[in-house]
Write a structure and sequence with these properties.
This protein folds into 3 domains: 53 residues, lambda repressor-like DNA-binding domains (434 Repressor (Amino-terminal Domain), Orthogonal Bundle); 124 residues, 3-Layer(aba) Sandwich (Rossmann fold); 131 residues, Rossmann fold (3-Layer(aba) Sandwich), CATH 3.40.50. Helix content is 44%, strand content 15%. With 338 residues, it is α/β, with parallel strands linked by helices. Helix 9 links the parallel strand 6 and strand 7. The protein is built from 12 helices and 12 strands.
Length: 338
């Protein structure tokens, strides 16, 4: 493996000049730069990135703490972040917290020990105060969550608006007996989507019977179980507003297993508009979350904080309803207790 001294000798310059060319922070004559770059290419020289980071106090790397790695939402988020940062010659280093507070904190410690220039954090477990304190230590952008006092460093969607749109659509189709399957209520996005459900019901003058809201886990299986829970509670319903697409799919499949038709017997709206919403039968009506735009904003904001790159744009994004085949006006029938 060639060394910086060999590059300097071949280019006819000092090692310090080679270093200045690589760091790009000090002006170097065009002819000198050309000779150094040609020498590096001829010798196959690869700069030691760790040594460069020590010299420049920059790693050109952004860390991402993510709650978990599975699922199309997380996959889309990571792909878009990596692509955007690569355009600026920055690398993305990812660590998963596996939905555990201790492991998410360990992920932050790991990324900071790798001298990341900034952090992107997608977390439900880390407390608001901990994230605000972290923002005082390192350039930080929080994804898919709004922190009071740190709003200009958060990239998120208007989840309450999405929950409202889903429920209003069912109401506009004539439904009055609407139940809700929500995500875990300790999660901010779940509580906000539920608030949108209540907002639309109240606006329409519709009551929400006790027991009409069932808490799920975001998993498909909890959508199935929520249908059983509603039936055990003796609550008839003609429509379901569901907190995410996974639970919506689970509910839809179980309704079919019970001999009920979607949307003829029960209408259903999901949330997130995951890619598979196109492929189930009937196609799932769902609230679209602009993950790509949220990632674009997060990457632009972290570049501005960590590298003083110019940036401006929204950080809060609206949702919209994508109509497919799981909503229709209510029939005379409804789901009856088991």
């Amino acid at each position: 493996m060639s060394t910086i001294r060999e590059v300097a000798k071949l280019a006819g310059v000092s090692p310090a000049t080679v270093s200045r060319v690589m760091n790009g922070e000090v002006p170097v004559a065009d002819d000198t730069r050309r000779r150094v770059e040609e020498a590096m290419q001829q010798l196959g020289y690869r700069p030691n990135s760790f040594a460069r980071s020590l010299a420049s106090n920059r790693s050109d790397c952004i860390g991402l703490v993510i709650s978990h790695l599975a699922g199309p939402f997380m996959g889309t988020l990571m792909v878009n972040l990596e692509e955007r940062l690569r355009l600026h010659q920055k690398s993305l280093l990812v660590a998963s917290g596996h939905n555990e507070l201790v492991r998410e904190q360990e992920s932050i410690d790991f990324l900071m020990s790798r001298r990341c220039d900034g952090l992107l954090v997608q977390s439900d477990r880390l407390h608001d105060d901990a994230l605000v304190a972290l923002a005082a230590q390192i350039p930080l952008v929080v994804i898919n969550r709004r922190l009071p006092g740190l709003e200009n460093q958060c990239s998120y969607v208007d989840n309450q608006q999405g929950g409202y749109l889903a429920t209003r659509h069912l109401i506009e189709q004539g439904h009055r007996r609407i139940a809700c399957i929500t995500g875990p209520r300790w999660k901010q996005d779940a509580t906000q989507r539920l608030a949108g459900f209540h907002q639309a019901m109240e606006e329409a003058g519709l009551s929400v019977p006790e027991g009409a809201v069932v808490e799920g886990t975001w998993q498909e299986s909890s959508g199935r179980e929520a249908v059983n829970t509603l039936r055990r509670r003796g609550l008839p319903f003609t429509a379901l507003a569901v907190g995410n697409d996974d639970m919506a799919i689970g509910a839809m499949l179980h309704l079919k297993e019970l001999g009920l038709s979607v949307p003829e017997d029960v209408s259903l709206v999901g949330f997130d508009d995951e890619v598979y919403a196109h492929y189930v039968t009937p196609g799932l009506t769902s609230v679209h979350v602009p993950v790509d735009r949220m990632a674009q904003a997060a990457s632009g904001r972290i570049m501005s904080l960590a590298y003083d790159e110019p940036w401006q744009g929204p950080l809060c994004f609206s949702t919209h309803l994508v109509e497919r085949g799981t909503v229709a006006p209510p029939s005379s029938a409804h789901v009856t207790p088991s």
